């Protein structure tokens, strides 16, 4: 007799968020979760999201129930019970979420009720992934190459290994507490110290030691798998720098250019094999090392969860990786995936192909810290040093690279070619062998000084292709330098991605005259659609990038459009929160029936998500790039961050309707120890000033005060444009207080626009949409209900007692600063936590 | 040097010449694959055609000994956006530019290839020429040129040859064989005899094959002499048979099905192909200008085994009464995904069965 097994279909899904941003975590999890919530709703699922990241956009989404709570086993269990959750999707939250969910499962008790289904990865696989050793054993069993490695529990065992393995060795924490970091040991002297340091980074106090494979080529492959084992390759990218430099710190390029089809097909097959070994439903990122001399391929890292490459591939290819991955996780087949109408009907099942080149360049923020007198190590190695990254899109490698350089370094003063002339020959050789953050310019400088391509390739383990490309760029720069005002030289330079600003410096003129020369000679960018079929099918493409060819595909959106200038790459300070604020702005403008056009080049934050805006320009954000888009779109208004003074002036000269996002070049300052900074937050609608709430800031933490503020206090304040502001003063108090005396406004305080991070935080703890209200104020659409809400918050503050905590970024590991760094001042991210003294 | 591409519809694209400075005529098509330019350029199925690569940078991996799909490329022109001059072979002297010079094939770079592809996807393939000067003469020449329909005769081997192994004896009938097929047969240690397509039933059967492969090849299957159909019709009843690409179209024709030209050819490797029996999907290199006409299929004789899920086209068929089957795509990869090489495993299983039953 047949026994019919009826499984109750899944209804309520919990997403575990990625937590605070840090090195290697730029908010991509939050962007991904935010993107997939509406489509899961439309498929009939109810969702919840738990995260402790105050900058999270996902937990504010109207398509979900958000929980701003510390990411602990108890809190996850509580939400599961409260919301009647029957399935958990941890893979969107990255490694932290996977570990937390693994832990929840381990601590599951019968009284907790039936165990919720794990989506994406089955519990047994989840466990293998968290314990890398088990995973790699299976990969070896399947016949794939990995580098010889072993896990040790103490110094003795580690030293024992030294007899069997030759230096260099890679040492990394087994089951790391934070993100994975690899350290390379070249010298015996360093061995004991590194092993003990790394042991401290492991949850289990174990260290994995492997043979280093420095110098090999690193290639990443991203694939999707559905429940029946159907696999699709989303794309692959290669790092210019060899293994030994952290992948995040390397220039990388997609599609892969310097590896043969045969090798790529093997990597594809191995990625599919690993996806099937794991039986995962969703996305898998495999990192490979390739030895060109022997043809050997090694699997070096397996990430069966969402990471930065997922979001980046989605932006680079136009293929909606996250929308598909979420549907695969809930059990749909690739052939059953449903996409919004904006996509071609077959997009989900066609492997994306690219007819453009994308270069990713890391962004380092060493200068910000050095400016405060702290010396840091700029040398690149296996530990990540970059805080963010920017993308450059073009139709040649040179164009994409030049645009990536311009995206990563708005102000290319320190990146200007001539700066390199000061580097001595000895230093140059040293830096070729021990690369620093100015890697690309140094390579160009070496070519300028006449080093041969093959000797440079030998010295750096960088493929000759890149040197030939850099030589082309050098030749173009030289010809530009020698022919001031020449239209042909200008055309060549623009085709190679150079900006008007850089050309103006070459020709000792201003960017306006370069712009005029370009227009007079019809050197105008043509915008190409970025879509996943490489021209095979007509797509309703809404993503564009500039190049200089014959056909332009971008037509103006309409006359009620607003161009929003994005924040660019994630930098120290307001990285994740800038993405948050820009996204809120896009969403609100869209709600108010404006057509929105975003310009940005950062794939990690949500700003480039296709559903957030009507059109996306994937471009650098220098004045010339913005002006070209403005020329093309002729928008109703342009929204510009307040720190872009030159751009604002240039746009106003053009007669554009400029709305300024109040923003300072935000260097997160903070109180000294034994001090408190008090911050009075206020909303200005262009006419009235609404005091909102006061918070107290002690090093590392911010708490709210339950104190009413007399609105008259702000009477003397002179504000230019609507927005959120902060009046700040310092007091020598090192305890948390519930009331504070207001200072003399005109003498003891200073004013600044509210940092985006604080907008995100206050929006959540005050439960009022401050970001959206600011947008409404900018365009004169603040309504009576808004005003009432704003007037009431001061007298009747009903806030969640959650502190804003600076994240505990491990600068000692990443940057090796010469003295202790206050992470409040150099913020990589933040999280919320209950007030410590009120816990329990 | 500036050179130009003229299309039959009068459209002109300009770029910089590379490769040979020759003027050629061919049918222009586009390819959306992101890897394997050397394999594609040397694939005999492109005899008489010019290829526009959607991949914007071509040549960055040099020219490799293991990436030849034929020793003499028969392609008529290569159009790219950006050309990389990289040599990766031992002599460090062979880049894509020199390779095309050597084979007297012109190339054009710095072309707005995306515009060209968007144009071709609307017009379908058409005649084209690469020239130094655009004038009436060049246009007249193009209009007057009749492209050959004898591509198979031009590219396939005129003589039999062997590629010995110690396994099953497989006869490959060459219509424009790509090396990838021989490479896979080598993996199976097959004892291979390649015969010209003008071979006869007698010649084939005298060699006592364990299995027969109808190879890939260029052009329209209907341009081949009727004898080919007769040959296939007889052989399919005697020995296990696998048709690939053009060979697949020939198997269909031999069994009464029609074959029709596609409005826009498809050359790439990103379309999902579904195996109907298992419903599973995979990806494979495709290069097709023709497909089997659905309506003409006699379901008493044949059934469909594979379909392209993008355009619904038939990608595989099997005979009901004989161990003969065929696929439109290239299961050998080269370039392209390897997940379809189970087709060869199926074939060798069929061959093993046949050998066992007839020993």
TrEMBL record, chain A:
Catalytic activity: hydrogencarbonate + NH4(+) + 2 ATP = carbamoyl phosphate + 2 ADP + phosphate + 2 H(+)
Keywords linked to the UniProt accession: ATP-binding, Ligase, Manganese, Nucleotide-binding, Repeat
SUPFAM superfamilies attached to this UniProt entry: Carbamoyl phosphate synthetase, large subunit connection domain, Glutathione synthetase ATP-binding domain-like, PreATP-grasp domain
Domain ATP-grasp: start-end pairs: 136-330
GO biological process: glutamine metabolic process
UniProt keyword Cytoplasm, yes or no: no
Protein name: carbamoyl-phosphate synthase (ammonia)
Record organism: Fructobacillus ficulneus
TrEMBL record, chain B:
Swiss-Prot/TrEMBL catalytic activity: L-glutamine + H2O = L-glutamate + NH4(+); hydrogencarbonate + L-glutamine + 2 ATP + H2O = carbamoyl phosphate + L-glutamate + 2 ADP + phosphate + 2 H(+)
Pathway connected to this protein: Pyrimidine metabolism; UMP biosynthesis via de novo pathway; (S)-dihydroorotate from bicarbonate: step 1/3; Amino-acid biosynthesis; L-arginine biosynthesis; carbamoyl phosphate from bicarbonate: step 1/1
Active site per the UniProt annotation: 332
InterPro entries found in the cross-reference section: Anth_synth/Amidotransfase, CarbamoylP_synth_ssu, CarbamoylP_synth_ssu_N, CarbP_synth_ssu_N_sf, Class_I_gatase-like, GATASE
PROSITE patterns the UniProt entry points to: GATASE_TYPE_1 (PS51273)
ATP-binding as UniProt keyword: yes
Superkingdom classification of source: Bacteria
One record GO biological process: L-arginine biosynthetic process
Record EC number: 6.3.5.5
Binding site for L-glutamine: 217, 219, 246, 289-290
Keyword list, A-Z: Amino-acid biosynthesis, Arginine biosynthesis, ATP-binding, Glutamine amidotransferase, Ligase, Nucleotide-binding, Pyrimidine biosynthesis
Entry-linked HAMAP family: CPSase_S_chain
Function: Small subunit of the glutamine-dependent carbamoyl phosphate synthetase (CPSase). CPSase catalyzes the formation of carbamoyl phosphate from the ammonia moiety of glutamine, carbonate, and phosphate donated by ATP, constituting the first step of 2 biosynthetic pathways, one leading to arginine and/or urea and the other to pyrimidine nucleotides. The small subunit (glutamine amidotransferase) binds and cleaves glutamine to supply the large subunit with the substrate ammonia.
Subunit structure: Composed of two chains; the small (or glutamine) chain promotes the hydrolysis of glutamine to ammonia, which is used by the large (or ammonia) chain to synthesize carbamoyl phosphate. Tetramer of heterodimers (alpha,beta)4.
Homology family: Belongs to the CarA family.
Name of this chain's protein: Carbamoyl phosphate synthase small chain
Organism: Fructobacillus ficulneus
């Amino acid at each position: 007799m047949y026994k019919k097994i009826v499984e109750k279909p899944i209804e309520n899904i919990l997403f575990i968020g990625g937590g605070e941003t840090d090195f290697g975590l730029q908010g991509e999890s939050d962007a991904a979760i935010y993107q997939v919530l509406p489509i899961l709703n439309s498929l009939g699922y109810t969702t919840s999201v738990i995260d402790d990241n105050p900058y999270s956009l996902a937990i504010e989404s109207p398509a979900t129930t958000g929980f701003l709570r510390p990411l602990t086993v108890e809190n996850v269990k509580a939400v599961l019970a409260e919301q009647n959750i029957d399935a958990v999707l941890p893979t969107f939250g990255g490694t932290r979420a996977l570990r937390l969910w693994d832990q929840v499962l381990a601590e599951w008790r019968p009284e907790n009720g039936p165990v919720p289904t794990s989506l994406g990865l089955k519990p047994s696989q989840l466990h293998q992934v968290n314990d890398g050793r088990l995973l790699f054993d299976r990969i070896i069993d399947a016949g794939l190459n990995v580098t010889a490695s072993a896990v040790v529990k103490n110094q003795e065992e580690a030293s024992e290994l030294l007899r069997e393995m030759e230096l260099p060795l890679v040492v990394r924490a087994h089951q790391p507490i934070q993100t994975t970091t690899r350290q390379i040991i070249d010298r015996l002297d360093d061995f004991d110290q590194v092993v003990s340091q790394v042991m401290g980074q492991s949850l289990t106090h174990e260290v994995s030691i492997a043979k280093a494979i420095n110098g090999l080529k690193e290639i990443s492959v991203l694939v999707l798998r559905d429940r029946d084992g159907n696999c699709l390759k989303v794309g692959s990218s290669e790092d210019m720098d060899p293994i030994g430099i952290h992948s995040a710190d390397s220039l990388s390029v997609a599609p892969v250019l310097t590896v043969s089809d045969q090798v790529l097909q093997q990597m594809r097959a191995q990625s599919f094999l690993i996806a099937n070994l794991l039986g995962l439903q969703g996305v898998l990122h495999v990192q490979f090392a390739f030895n060109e001399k022997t043809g050997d391929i090694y699997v070096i890292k397996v990430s069966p969860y969402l990471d930065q490459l997922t979001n980046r591939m989605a932006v680079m290819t136009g293929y909606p990786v996250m929308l598909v991955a979420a549907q695969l996780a809930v059990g749909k087949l690739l052939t059953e995936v449903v996409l919004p109408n904006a996509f071609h009907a077959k997009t989900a099942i066609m492997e994306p192909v690219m007819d453009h080149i994308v270069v990713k360049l890391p962004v380092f923020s060493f200068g910000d810290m050095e400016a405060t007198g702290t010396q840091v190590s700029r040398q690149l190695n296996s530990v990540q040093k970059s805080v963010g990254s920017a993308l450059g899109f073009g139709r040649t490698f040179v164009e994409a690279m030049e645009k990536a350089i311009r995206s990563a370094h708005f102000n290319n003063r320190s990146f200007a070619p001539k700066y390199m002339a000061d580097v001595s020959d000895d230093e140059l050789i040293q830096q070729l062998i021990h690369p620093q953050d100015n890697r690309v310019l140094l390579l160009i400088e070496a070519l300028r000084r006449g080093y041969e391509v093959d000797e440079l390739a030998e010295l750096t383990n960088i493929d000759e292709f890149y040197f030939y490309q850099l030589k082309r760029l050098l030749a173009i720069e030289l010809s530009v330098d020698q022919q001031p005002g020449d239209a042909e030289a200008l055309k060549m330079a623009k085709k190679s991605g150079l900006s008007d600003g850089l050309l103006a410096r070459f020709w000792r003129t201003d960017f306006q005259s370069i712009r005029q020369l370009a227009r007079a000679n019809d050197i105008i960018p043509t915008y190409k659609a970025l879509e996943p079929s490489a021209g095979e099918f007509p797509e309703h493409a809404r993503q564009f990038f500039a190049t200089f060819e014959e056909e332009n595909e971008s037509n103006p959106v309409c006359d009620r459009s607003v161009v929003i200038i994005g924040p660019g790459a994630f930098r120290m300070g307001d990285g994740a929160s800038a993405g948050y604020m820009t996204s809120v702005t896009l969403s609100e403008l869209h709600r108010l029936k404006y057509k929105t056009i975003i310009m940005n080049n950062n794939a990690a934050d949500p700003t480039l998500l296709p559903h957030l805006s009507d059109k996306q320009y994937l471009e650098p954000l220098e004045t010339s790039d913005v002006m070209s888009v403005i020329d093309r779109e002729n928008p109703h208004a342009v929204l510009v961050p307040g720190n872009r003074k030159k751009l604002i002036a240039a746009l106003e000269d053009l007669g554009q309707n400029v709305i300024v996002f109040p923003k300072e070049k935000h260097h997160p300052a903070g109180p000294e120890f034994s001090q408190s900074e008090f911050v009075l937050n206020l909303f200005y609608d262009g006419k009235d000033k609404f005091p909102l709430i006061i918070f107290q800031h002690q090093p590392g933490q911010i708490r709210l005060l339950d104190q009413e503020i007399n609105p008259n206090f702000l009477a003397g304040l002179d504000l230019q444009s609507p927005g959120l502001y902060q009046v700040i003063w310092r007091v020598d108090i090192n305890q948390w207080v519930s009331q504070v005396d207001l200072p003399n406004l005109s003498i003891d305080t200073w004013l600044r626009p509210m940092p985006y991070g604080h907008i995100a935080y206050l929006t959540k703890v005050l439960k009022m949409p401050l970001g959206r209200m600011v947008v409404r104020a900018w365009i004169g659409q603040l309504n009576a209900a808004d005003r009432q809400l704003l007037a009431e918050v001061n007298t009747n503050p009903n806030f969640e007692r959650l502190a804003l905590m600076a994240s505990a970024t491990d600068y000692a590991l990443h940057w090796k600063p010469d003295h202790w760094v206050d992470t409040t001042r150099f913020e990589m991210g933040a999280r919320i936590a209950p007030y410590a003294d009120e816990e329990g | 040097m500036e050179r130009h591409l003229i299309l039959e519809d009068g459209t002109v694209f300009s770029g910089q010449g590379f490769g040979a400075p020759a003027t050629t005529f061919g049918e222009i098509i586009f390819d959306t694959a992101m890897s394997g330019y050397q394999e594609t350029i040397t694939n005999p199925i492109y005899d008489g055609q010019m290829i526009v690569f959607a991949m914007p940078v071509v040549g960055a991996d040099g020219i490799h000994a293991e990436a030849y799909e034929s020793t003499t490329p028969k392609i008529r022109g290569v159009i790219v956006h950006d050309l990389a001059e990289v040599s990766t072979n031992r002599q460090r002297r062979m880049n894509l530019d020199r390779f095309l010079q050597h084979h007297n094939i012109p190339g054009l770079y710095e072309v707005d290839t995306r515009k060209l592809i968007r144009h071709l996807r609307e017009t379908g393939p058409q005649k084209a020429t690469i020239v130094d000067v655009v004038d009436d003469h060049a246009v007249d020449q193009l209009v007057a040129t009749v492209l050959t329909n004898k591509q198979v005769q031009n590219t396939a081997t005129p003589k039999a040859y062997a590629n010995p192994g110690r396994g099953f004896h497989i006869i490959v009938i060459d219509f424009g064989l790509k090396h990838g097929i021989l490479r896979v047969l080598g993996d199976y240690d097959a004892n291979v005899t390649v015969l010209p397509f003008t071979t006869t039933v007698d010649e084939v059967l005298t060699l006592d094959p364990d299995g027969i492969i109808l190879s890939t090849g260029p052009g329209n299957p209907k341009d081949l002499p009727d004898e080919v159909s007769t040959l296939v019709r007889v052989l399919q009843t005697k020995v296990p048979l696998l048709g690939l690409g053009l060979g697949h179209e020939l198997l269909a024709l031999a069994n009464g099905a029609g074959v029709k030209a596609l409005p826009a050819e498809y050359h790439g490797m990103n379309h999902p192909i579904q195996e109907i029996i298992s419903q599973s999907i995979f990806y494979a290199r495709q290069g097709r200008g023709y497909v089997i006409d659905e309506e003409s299929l006699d379901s008493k004789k044949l059934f469909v085994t594979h379909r392209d899920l993008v355009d619904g086209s038939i990608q595989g068929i099997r005979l009901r009464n004989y161990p003969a089957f065929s696929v439109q795509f290239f299961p050998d990869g080269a370039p392209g995904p390897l997940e379809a090489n189970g087709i060869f495993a199926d074939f060798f299983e069929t061959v093993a069965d046949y050998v066992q039953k007839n020993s």
